[in-house]
Amino acid sequence: MRKIMTGVLGAAFAAYASTVWAGTLDNVKAKGILTCGTNPATAGFSVPDNDGKWTGFVVDYCRAVAAGVLGDATKVKFIPLNAKDRFTALQSGEIDILAHNATWTSSRDTSLGIIFAGTYFYDGQGFMVRKSENIKSAKDLDGASICVSQGTTTELNLADYFRSNGMTFSAVGFADEEAVIKAYEEGRCDVFSADTSSLNAARIRMANADDSVVLPEIISKEPLGPAVRQGDDQWLNIAKWTLNVMLAAEEFGVTSKNVDEMKNSDNPNIRRLLGVEGSFGKDVGLGETWSQDIIKQVGNYSEIFERSIGKDSPLKIERGVNALWNAGGLQYAPPIR
Amino acid sequence: MVDISQPAHLSRAFSIYDKKFRAIAYQAGLAVSLAVIVTGIATQTVSNMRQRGIPLTFDFWNQTAGFQINQTLIPYDTLSSYGQAFWVGVANTLLVSAFGIVLATVIGFLIGISRLSNNWIVAKVATSYVEVIRNIPLLLQLLFWYNAVLKPLPAPKASIALPGGIYLNNRGIILPAVEFHAGAGLVAIAIVAAVAFATAFSAYASGYQKRTGKQLPVLVVNLLLLTGLPLAAYVAAGNPWSFTYPELRGFNFRGGQQIYPEFAALLIGLSVYTASFIAEIVRGGVQAVSKGQTEAAHALGLPQGKTLRLVVVPQAFRIIIPPLTSQYLNLIKNSSLAVFIGYPDLVQVFAGSVLNQTGAAVQVMAITFAVYLVISLITSAAMNAFNLRFALVER
């Protein structure tokens, strides 16, 4: 009896589990909406505007996935997550995809049950200090109190950096990034450390932005990318190739404005990218026009970069290492064929 | 009669018409289905976790943590293990709970007694304290203490200097560090000896009073013992400790003992909040002792002080202790709100950084639950033992 019961219950759970886990794509299509975990408030990357509409660089990535999968970039439900909770939310299935300022590391890729789908922003960790301290280099930070977000690579890099340079520091950690910034602003810490993009994003929102300065040292490699659950290769491909579509579009000069004309292009690369030739959409498991929807509704990589964090935004981050490979940067989409 | 009833009774033992049998059968059925459900869920969780590559073991325990914790009671650095980080969290939770319980009890008793005061102002102030503090959520109070009271203090370079080499700034309170030299042990021994002698003398005096009816000057003798012996030892050992005074170097003070604002905010918040409940318990306990008791004591000629100490308080304690235990348990559990103001307690360090860096959510949460359970059970066992001493002994 007991065995039968266990069997029945186990089968029921397994059936339940399989509906939840096996096909994230089918799940998203059935719900008609993409659930995307993102930063609660990082200017330029992910922040709700005055009307409560989410905007920013990583937000646009989520919208691109929704455009490709559902044909509508507005069908996204954003779940703001702290650094501390983000991977658990993905593991547990609360979100379909994580588009956070999360660093791709070996341990996260292999031991958390999640997998990174690429790098949408190459970043590095830096330090912000008050100008009045007259600090010119990170080497002068011996003995400082440093505000950090818990559960980040920042927390670990700090310890590494100070240890290898024979310096001491006192970490003041908070789960919530807003609390970290507030603690720094109110003088609880001498230094605020995070990815430089986050430092700049935090700075423009500070009341006295000009009182702080970001030090020149970059102490780590922080490739930020989207992540999905392990064991769903189809969904991983969609996450990966959504980013590649945006990069390839930039490379071949396809923008949200000219995508319809480009369908008539003679360039075979563009024809394959837009699904006019070949079976790109079908192979990914989506419709023929998925890549067109992404580009038309959200834009190519350069468009989302410049409007959210680049020269058309208050952040004014240079493309730098995030330029395309043929422009001296690291962004490189594998060929679509 | 006997011959007939015997087999009937036996046959009823396994009959579904037997009440007792049915009751046992229901219970067994419930237990089995519960066990089946629990094993089912556990098996499924484990297999799902394995399938998705989520860590299932406790291997992380001995791995290098790699992050820093600013307030530690036990040795910890960035090369220590996750296991060591766990103990740091436990120690910090115990530290704030222990200080919180003591402080909350002191404030609570003062306020509770003040509410019964004949002085109108004192009684009203105490009442307002209870009504205001008790009715504001604890988290808001913690954020208030941390953000509105402690953080706006001046930066280290503009520290407020207090007498005795103590500095106050937004990094906390910096006290001179005590350094013990050889001979400090002698003073410690003297203190232990003084306490032992004082206890023994009290016991002797109470026995002496029972036998002869005469009182010995317990208070004077014990005070002399408790101050005199350690003082004598201190002189004999020749100044066995010294202070290192903190000095401002670079960003912060070095060479002192620092009390962090996170700890201070949590301690103040927890104590003030819990004290408002303890005050009510104390007031209730004292008021529950019938007025006739006081009147009878007065009629016997006991002065007010002795009436309180010998008649009212022992009876009030009987009523106060059980609900007081619940307040202590609440305080311990509420200390987990530390996570909101960045005090590295068990939840902040272990269920925060460690959970996130290792991804072992299930194991970490299970351990965290277990720790709170154990601390709470030990506290309530201790309070129950204490309660036994005061409980009404019925003859």
What does this structure look like?
The complex is a heterodimer of chains A (337) and B (395). Helix content of chain A is 40%, strand content 16%. Chain A contains 14 helices and 14 strands. Chain A has a five-stranded mixed sheet with strand order 10-9-11-8-12, with helices on both faces. In chain A, helix 3 packs across helix 9 and helix 3 packs antiparallel against helix 13. The model of chain A is unreliable at 6-20 (pLDDT under 50). Chain B contains twelve helices and seven strands. In chain B, strands 1, 2, 3, 4 and 7 form a five-stranded antiparallel sheet that branches. Chain B is 67% helix and 8% strand. Chain B starts with a helix and ends in a 5-residue tail after the last helix. Chain B is of the alpha+beta class and 395 residues long. The longest helix of chain B is centred in the first third of the chain and has 34 residues, at 82-115. In chain B, a hairpin with a 2-residue loop joins strand 5 (247-249) and strand 6. Chains A and B meet through helix 1, helix 4, helix 5, helix 6 and strand 10 of A and helix 2 and helix 11 of B.
